[in-house]
Amino acid sequence: MISDSSSLIIFAKINKLNLLTKLYDKIQITNGIYKEIVEQGLFINAPDAKLIKKYIDDKKIEILELDKKYGEFSKELKEIYPQLGIGESDAISLALQKGDKSIVIDEHSGRVIAKLYKLKPVGSLRVLIESYKKNIINETELKDTIGEMIKNKFRIGADVITEFWKIFEKLKRKRD
Amino acid sequence: MENSISVRIPAKELREIKIISEEEKRKKSDILREIMYKGIMGKKLEIALKKFQNNEATASKASEIAGIPLTSFLDILNQKSINFHYTLEDLREDLED
């Protein structure tokens, strides 16, 4: 599964990269994403960059090269859609190169562009729900993780969180 | 490469620079260069935050504009209590099926 930069950093910041690798086996990024999240992060000694580096050393996150065609495509994407950073343009390009159907991406403007190219965006909250459905985490861990995430790493609107728990309760009733 | 330009500095600011220069025992020109660098970084961050909030830049793009690592930009969003752009529509899309 390919991930964009911000979502990966957020999972690293809450020390839950293991959820991604348990759920999807391997996470893939490009060299450009590596520079953005590891090289630049290590430059300021960011703990999240060190953790991601460890996952790369352990071969749980792999770096794939964009070929010439898709490398050019990523640059073009950034020109056509100036709201995108290398995190999104590279993730989208790598998915198209590999023929993947989905990518991990949270930010609305990145998701919109991913969908234009027929990719299914998978947000952090979906990763957490999937982890719960597959019994990788239980309800308490889900609540703690989301609490930690929205408290100081990934702020999202209160309306979104309320709706999330509503959907979660429905899902739980279905399972029981 | 360094270039020289002459700038008129208001007396009030010049006094402040003199005080800082005496306090830190450094040349006034060094203090000025440092202040200018900090000012530029601050201004770039201001532009980046505005673009992020206006939905004109993702965090990845905004960190590029600010000239700082993405991880630092994400921390700044958090310190300033700025929400991510993740809508109800995004959530429903994420949790369907």
* CATH level-1 class of the largest domain in chain A: Alpha Beta
- β-strand number of chain B: 0
Assess the beta-strand content of chain B as a share of residues. under 5%
CATH superfamily of the largest domain in chain A, by name, is 5'-nuclease
Order of helices and strands of chain A: EHHEHHEHHEHEHHH
Q: Overall 3D geometry of chain B? A: elongated
Whole-number tally of structural domains of chain B: 1
**Which whole number gives the mean pLDDT of chain B?**
93
Structural class of chain B: mainly alpha
Average per-residue pLDDT of chain A, rounded, comes to 94
How are the strands ordered across the major sheet of chain A? 1-4-5
Sequence of secondary-structure elements of chain B: HHHHH
Count of helical regions of chain B: 5
C-alpha termini separation of chain B: 59 Å
Percent of residues in beta strands of chain A: 5-15%
Main sheet of chain B, how many strands, which sense, barrel?
A: none
Count of DSSP strands of chain A: 5
Q: Helicity range of the residues of chain A? A: 55-70%
Radius of gyration of chain B: 20 Å
Give the total of domains of chain A: 2
Brief synopsis:
The complex is a heterodimer of chains A (about 180) and B (about 100). Helices cover about 65% and strands about 10% of the residues of chain A.
Description:
The complex is a heterodimer of chains A (176) and B (97). With 176 residues, chain A is mainly α. Chain A has two domains: 122 residues, 5'-nuclease (Rossmann fold), CATH 3.40.50; 51 residues, no CATH class. Helix content of chain A is 67%, strand content 9%. In chain A, the strands form two sheets. Chain A has a three-stranded parallel β-sheet. The longest helix of chain A is centred in the last third of the chain and has 18 residues. The mean pLDDT of chain A is 94. With 97 residues, chain B is mostly helical. Chain B has one domain. Chain B contains five helices and no strands. In chain B, helix 2 packs antiparallel against helix 3 and helix 3 crosses helix 4. The longest helix of chain B has 26 residues. The interface between A and B is large, with 45 and 31 residues.
